[in-house]
Design a protein that fits this description.
This protein is α+β, with helices and mostly antiparallel strands. The protein contains 9 helices and 18 strands.
């Protein structure tokens, strides 16, 4: 009879106890995936992968160690547990380390209402190839497209089980279905590239292949003839596709690990205005059919909706157990972990408030400036918030797109940028991080 992940987790915990661990937790992850790449209408590559990984964290007093293996044999598990305990005995003491108290643990662990797994039959490699071919064909229908760099389709499942000596034991299964296309427009030294893609839990929710290919082609064609914009101070509109990067910088700055080590430009900002009034940042890990949803975190604590920013005011940090203890605060149910590392704070589904205007209206109102559609590289100072990134997109004059631009740098300070954001109303609500296009009224551009 095939051993379940729950049974395997119980075996790992028993081995840890036998080896001398005073407390332990284990994460078992079983993955299966299939992907195909198509070029010139024919199959270029097909890959199928299956794996199982087991992570074990053991505690000996206030010392701990984390090890992982991919071998389910009884002897291998026993050796892993013995090695982990031996490592823990040599590790430095950490007075903040430890498992959750039983009273802190998630009591409702039935993840079925979150719809994390598509029960429909698994797509065959032929199904995936047909989708990739359709996306490629749609891109090539655009006369400006000279070639399609790649058209890829993939399907995967992951089964996860978390168990600990404090009594927690629960798991879930997650599926994902993806499709992407990268188109190249123009010829010779005037070639430009852009992409589109989608990833969903349910196949039925996936954007049609034709639409993905046509969108990738249109975006690539719109970049033909790109040149450098002028240098100076101008408004910058971050397109919805890349606007979530600004929210990402905010979330990194309120991460408990950064706060505990004093490495955040928002380290003293709780209770202060960091976004314009009317803007909020909501984390909701219980949204159905969304990739970031979960009922419990990597330490078995319940996840819960919370307002990280309310009406522009920062309300708190993103915390796992260890960093919450360091800061003398309650954990927020945001511990994430893999099999080879201990937990650390991470956000789940996070949304920024949408505005009342369309992106077109923001373009009209900004007058002359830059619409950014892609970002390249990053120089971000987490302590000061100083921001500098390479960018490409479109130059806007008198509220209308004038010509494509590339090879420019945008710079500012995240304190000022976040505090002046003007959102559009075009966020894609199915994403784990739905963020609309965002206008920053004034940034420094280095171009021609």
């Amino acid at each position: 009879m095939t051993q379940t992940l729950e049974q395997l987790s119980a075996q790992v915990l028993a081995a840890a106890k036998q080896a001398g661990a005073q407390a332990a937790d284990t994460l078992a992850v079983q993955r299966s995936s299939v992907s195909v790449d198509v070029r010139a209408g024919t199959l270029e590559q097909a890959e199928r992968a299956e794996s199982i990984d087991i992570g074990l964290r053991v505690f000996v007093g206030q010392r701990f160690a984390n090890v992982s293996i991919s071998d389910r044999a009884h002897g291998a598990i026993a050796m892993m547990a013995e090695r982990a305990v031996a490592m823990a005995r040599e590790a430095p003491q950490d007075r903040f380390a430890g498992l959750a108290d039983p009273g802190q643990l998630c009591q409702s662990t039935d993840s079925r209402p979150l719809e994390l797994y598509d029960p429909a039959p698994e797509p065959t490699p032929q199904d995936l190839m047909q989708d990739a071919q359709a996306a490629e064909a749609a891109a090539l229908d655009n006369p400006a497209v000279s070639q399609v760099q790649s058209a890829s389709a993939a399907y995967g499942t992951s089964r996860v089980h978390l168990a600990a000596s404090n009594g927690f034991s629960a798991g879930y299964t997650r599926s994902t279905r993806g499709l992407s296309c990268v188109a190249i427009a123009g010829t010779g030294t005037s070639m430009e590239r852009d992409y589109d893609g989608d990833s969903r839990i349910f196949q039925s929710d996936l954007t049609p292949a034709h639409d993905i290919g046509a969108s990738a082609a249109a975006r690539a064609a719109a970049r033909i003839g790109a040149r450098k914009p002028p240098t100076g101070k101008f408004p910058v509109l971050f397109d919805e596709r890349i606007a979530a990067s600004l929210l990402g910088h905010l979330l990194a700055a309120v991460n408990g690990a950064a706060i505990a080590r004093g490495g955040s430009f928002l380290r003293d900002a709780i209770g202060t205005q960091i976004l314009p009034k009317g803007l909020s940042v909501l984390e909701d890990p219980h949204r159905p059919r969304v990739s970031g949803s979960r009922l419990f975190d990597g330490e078995g604590l319940p996840t819960q909706p919370r307002q990280i920013v309310k009406d522009g005011v920062l309300t708190g940090w993103t915390l796992d157990l260890a960093n919450a203890r360091k800061l003398g605060m309650a954990p927020s149910g945001n511990a994430a972990r893999g099999t080879s590392a201990p937990p650390s704070p991470m956000n789940w589904n996070v949304a920024l408030s949408q505005g009342q205007q369309s992106r077109a209206a923001l373009l009209r109102d900004m007058g002359t400036g830059l619409l950014v559609t892609s970002l390249i590289g990053a120089t971000i100072n987490p302590n000061t918030g100083d921001y500098s990134r390479g960018a490409a997109g479109h130059w806007v004059e008198n509220g209308a797109i004038a010509y494509p631009v590339n090879e420019c740098t945008i710079a500012g300070n995240l304190h000022e940028m976040l505090g002046a954001l003007i959102p559009a109303n075009d966020a894609r609500l199915h994403l784990s991080r739905p963020v609309p296009s965002l206008l920053v009224p004034r940034m420094t551009l280095a171009g021609a």
